[in-house]
Amino acid sequence: MGTFHDHMGELHGITVVVRQLDGNTWIGRCHSEDSVEVILHDADQHVSQESDESPEDWLKRARQMGHWPRVSTVRVPRERVKVLVRLSDVTNGGELPAS
Amino acid sequence: MPYPEELVTPMRKELTDHGVTELKSATEVEDFLSTDETSLVIVNSVCGCAAGGARPGAALAIQSETRPARVGTVFAGQDVEATQKARDFCAQVPPSSPSMALFKGSELVWFLPRHMIEGRDPQSIAFDLVQAFEEHCSSTAS
After folding, report:
1. Catalytic option among B47, B90, B109, B141
2. Known active-site residue B90
3. Any idea which of A83-87, B2-6, B28-32 has the lowest mean pLDDT?
4. Which end of chain A is more exposed for a tag (fewer CB within 10 A), N or C?
């Protein structure tokens, strides 16, 4: 029982990790993804050049406890997306699985 | 904005029918966690992607022999004050719903965030819960 939106795709409502080609990483609840963009809600971003924490440590922490919803909605252009995976598929060490 | 209560009532009952205590105010949450015993707090939500498996998973798990002394629930987006108070007890943990938090007294000892619930079947969620119960709940509830 609950609210379902099956027509939105299999990742709708699922917490995902988006690794960009520039190495920066988003975590958020996927609204939709297509050939144009990935839309995330309640997202947080790891910017490699600005963070003291490695992306692996950041993902490891998020995998264990979740992520902070710092950005209400973000649209990541598809051409910037290197990897799109479920957060639950990130390894215990914070490494991304092969997409 | 809260959902209509008539939509939410069956989702509440999926837990309360199994003996889970509904906590609808901050005071009720505080009182519930003012104990030396183990407590499970289930953050319920309307989300079908996750809560649809979370509720039956929790209902299954709390039938196990080893389980927390008390099981309560707050409803995210509906009982806002109670949910915030429950989250105050998990200050280092990002908010997510549905989610489940296991306490010893008022200390958080285990947490199951939303992304570890999404898309999983109730049996898998129950398995994780029972493992946590066996690790943290030393006594068997009567």
Report:
1. B47
2. no
3. B2-6
4. C
Question: Across the beta sheet with B70-75, what order do the strands follow?
Answer: B21-22, B70-75, B38-44, B99-104, B107-112
CB contacts, 8 Å: A63 with chain B: 115
- Chain-chain contact of A2 with B48 (C-beta, under 8 angstroms): yes
pTM of the model: 0.90
Instruction: Note whether A40 and A16 are within 8 A (CB).
Output: yes
Q: Has the ipTM of the complex gone over 0.90?
A: no
Per-residue model confidence as pLDDT tens digits over A20-54: 999 999 999 999 999 999 999 999 999 999 999 99
Encode pLDDT of A59-78 as tens digits: 999 999 999 999 999 999 99
Is residue B24 within 8 Å of residue B65, measured between CB atoms? no
Residue with tokens 């144009």: A36
User: Does B49 reach chain A within 8 Å, measured CB to CB?
Assistant: yes
On whether any CB of chain A is under 8 Å from the CB of B96, the answer is: yes
